[in-house]
Amino acid sequence: MIVLIGFMGAGKTTVGGLLAQHLGMPFVDSDAVIEAAEGLAVREIFATRGEAEFRRVEAATITRLMSGPDVVLAVGGGALTTAAVRAALAGHQVVLLDVAFEEALERVAADPGRPMLHQPDLSGLYDRRQDGYREAARVAVPVSGRSPREVVADVLAALGMDGVGE
Ligand code: S3P
Fold this sequence. Notes:
Helices cover 52% and strands 12% of the residues. By secondary structure, the chain is an alpha/beta fold. A five-stranded parallel β-sheet has the order 2-3-1-4-5, with helices on both faces.
């Protein structure tokens, strides 16, 4: 199991897809699993049921995925705010895609599908999440100014998996 974490706009879905392809593993995005299971977009779950309920569904989804078959798993940028998610990820190959706040904003600015973007103190949210990301991650890979392919190579090197899948 390789788990990609990081703030919105870090590139978890893009890098995760490429990494999985390279390793010949399935790629799973926790938000996509939630949307398929609930029959609602993440934005709609936030709007109709609220963030707390989204976090409950998210934690249950990630916990279940972590006890299933090996995949490359990208989890939503706020998943680690739930203790059950932190516990489910402990001991696994957790990779932080470390994006600078300004670059994250440029990448996802005005995306209507990301409800957390609309909260008033976004840079405060970014700052408050950094310790949690770093505590959960086995390795951190900087992504600012780097292409998805470069990031994949850096992730493989950081995990000591260079050469795997080539
Ligand atoms: C969230 C990030 C989103 C999604 C939801 C909440 C957050 O995932 O799970 O909108 O709290 O940061 P991405 O990090 O893939 O955008």
